[in-house]
Design brief:
- By secondary structure, the protein is of the alpha/beta class.
- The chain has one domain: Rossmann fold (3-Layer(aba) Sandwich), CATH 3.40.50.
- The protein has helices spanning about 25-30, 50-55, 65-75, 90-100, 100-115, 135-145, 170-180; strands at about 35-45, 85, 115-120, 125, 150, 160-165, 185-195.
- The strands form 2 sheets. A 5-stranded parallel β-sheet has the order 1-7-6-2-3. Strands 4-5 form a two-stranded antiparallel ribbon.
- Helix 7 (about 170-180) links the parallel strand 6 (about 160-165) and strand 7.
- The structure holds zinc ion.
Length: about 210
Amino acid sequence: MIHLPQLPENHCPICLWPVPTAEICGACLKKPPAFTRTIAALRYSFPIDALIHSFKYQANLAIAPILADLLIKKLTTTAMRPDVIIPMPLHPIRLRERGFNQAMEISRYISKHMGIMILPDSCSRIKHTLPQTGLPWKDRQKNIRKAFSCKIDLSGKHVAVVDDVMTTGATLNELAKTLRQQGAAEISNWVVARTLSEIHQTGPYMV
Ligand SMILES: [Zn+2]
């Protein structure tokens, strides 16, 4: 069996940042994100980063079920049953470049396996942002502001947002804010991998 990079056992339940006591981290206490919690299958490092890279940038779609399975394995250890799944939307320009939405591909398998409905076109990305990679967290927040539009009524719903990678959480937080505006009561981020290499400054979700 190959070794896959695990997240530290004790972490913040909201953002997954390592916390020895497994309590809510300082940053989430100071500025609570719009999402309720995050579940990630693995830590974003080798070989999972290479796998995700190949999936996204070489359109290696056969990797989607592998990533979905890793996440499903993690999800089955929790008793959570969100009402709906919303894949992280891609801007139409990015979608055209890539040819597919990686979050949608992963969501498809999770939805089928867990019997939870996907709402694929309920939310859209209305702002074509610069790639977040390489931007400091403060600029990421600015870059992503007002990036999403949702038209569906989510009153009282528990929404699972599926994405491939969570870095600072700025994009997930911005989508979660939009989902809250539509009435979502609970938002769980379901991501394949979480990066932990970035400096976690206080208030990464600050707007
Ligand atoms: Zn946190």
